[in-house]
Design goal:
A hairpin with a 5-residue loop joins β2 and β3. Helices cover 16% and strands 21% of the residues. The longest helix has 18 residues. It has a single domain, classed as Alpha-Beta Complex (Sulfite Oxidase, Chain A, domain 2). It has 324 residues and is α+β, with helices and mostly antiparallel strands. It contains 8 helices and 13 strands. The protein is globular. The protein binds ligand MTE. Ligand MTE binds next to loops. It comes from Marinobacter salinisoli. Its EC number is 1.8.5.-.
Length: 324
């Protein structure tokens, strides 16, 4: 276990980061004006991230699962990220995530299930039709986005591995490869790699849990968790683990990354809840990106991120202050 240190995302929510996003957007627009060659140059981003390289996906919109709120612009979704494997600054993932190779990609499935094995991602996806769901993403740091994700219901994917009756939890792990992930080479990292997350089986099987392979109509940019990640929209964003290489069904509740780092601040459940403040800041509202110094764009945070109708029953009888 690592000694808890202050992760960068706990820096007080002065308007420093929004300002950076604001400036980055302006630089991005300036880059656009310079054409593709200049797209990344003004930010110092690698020229290796070219949105044009992302593959188009075929999918059907799922309006029943989608909000009609304004979507966060693509350039914010792909340039303001948390992906500590590539560094702790918000623009580090966009700068460095191209150093990870995502093709081919396979996933190890094991534990309490009847179909364990190592599966190539394309074989996993083959039987499924992709759908688009526009979800709110609420980070524990009190910013949020609205993102059109593309993927398949997590339940449909997990059922194929035939979890048995001892499977009470499902555990996920991100790629651990310091050669490709410079944040994992850092001597100052607070994270005991690999990044780990987990869900109770009934949470994983909930209709909202999403096995995500794309956004804005195309494959996921590396900085957003290519080639596939979870999206669990009623929970703080850190539960939505990226670039997954392992899925394990198990009887015991798994140890998860942020809980391991600071258990008094980040719990296993991590349901979005404006009534339970983080020990060091309020969770009553959030900055909806794009957000700037002069227009922070605060919105009220909703319990379960507004998805209570679909998920509140999962926590009936549970004290959500104890189980934060
Ligand atoms: N997954 C891994 N492997 N590593 C991370 O650092 N950060 C989490 C989550 N998944 C993280 C991760 C956090 S804190 C958030 S808010 C979301 O990813 C951010 O997703 P986005 O960058 O696509 O907006």
């Amino acid at each position: 276990m690592l000694i808890p240190r202050r992760p960068s995302w706990t820096i007080s929510h002065s308007e420093v980061t929004p300002e950076r996003v604001f400036l980055n957007r302006r630089k991005f627009m300036a880059g656009l004006a310079l054409g593709t060659a200049g797209l990344c140059a003004p930010l110092g981003l690698s020229a290796a991230f070219r949105p044009a390289d992302l593959k188009e996906l075929e999918y059907t919109p799922a309006p029943a699962f989608s909000t009609d709120e304004d979507k966060t612009p693509f350039e914010d979704v792909v340039r303001y990220n948390n992906f500590y494997e590539f560094g702790t600054a918000k623009d580090d993932p966009a700068r460095y995530a191209h150093e990870m190779s995502v093709d081919p990609w396979s996933v190890q499935v094991d534990g309490e299930c009847d179909r364990p094995g190592t599966y190539a991602l394309e074989d996993l996806l083959k039987p499924h039709a992709l759908e688009e769901r526009v979800y709110r993403l609420r980070c524990v740091e009190a910013w949020s986005m609205v993102i059109p994700w593309i993927g398949v219901p997590l339940a449909d994917m997990l059922k194929r591995f035939e979890p048995n009756s001892r499977a009470k939890y499902v555990y996920f792990e991100t790629l651990h490869d310091p050669d490709q992930m410079r944040g994992q080479r850092s001597l100052f990292s607070t994270v005991d790699w690999p990044y780990r997350e987990g869900l109770r089986m009934d949470e994983a099987m909930n209709e909202l849990s999403f096995f995500t392979v794309g956004l804005y109509g195309k494959t996921l940019p590396n900085q957003n968790g290519a080639p596939f990640r979870l999206v669990v929209p009623w929970k703080y964003g850190f539960k939505s683990i990226k670039s997954i290489v392992r899925i394990r069904f198990q009887e015991e509740q798994p140890a998860t990354t942020w809980e391991m780092i600071a258990p008094q601040e980040y719990g296993f459940y991590a349901n979005v809840n404006p009534e339970v403040d983080h020990p060091r800041w309020s969770q009553k509202r959030e900055r909806r990106l794009p957000s700037g110094l002069l227009s922070p764009n605060w919105v009220e945070t909703q319990k379960f991120n507004g998805y209570g109708e679909q998920v509140a029953h999962l926590y009936k009888g549970m004290d959500l202050r104890q189980n934060y």
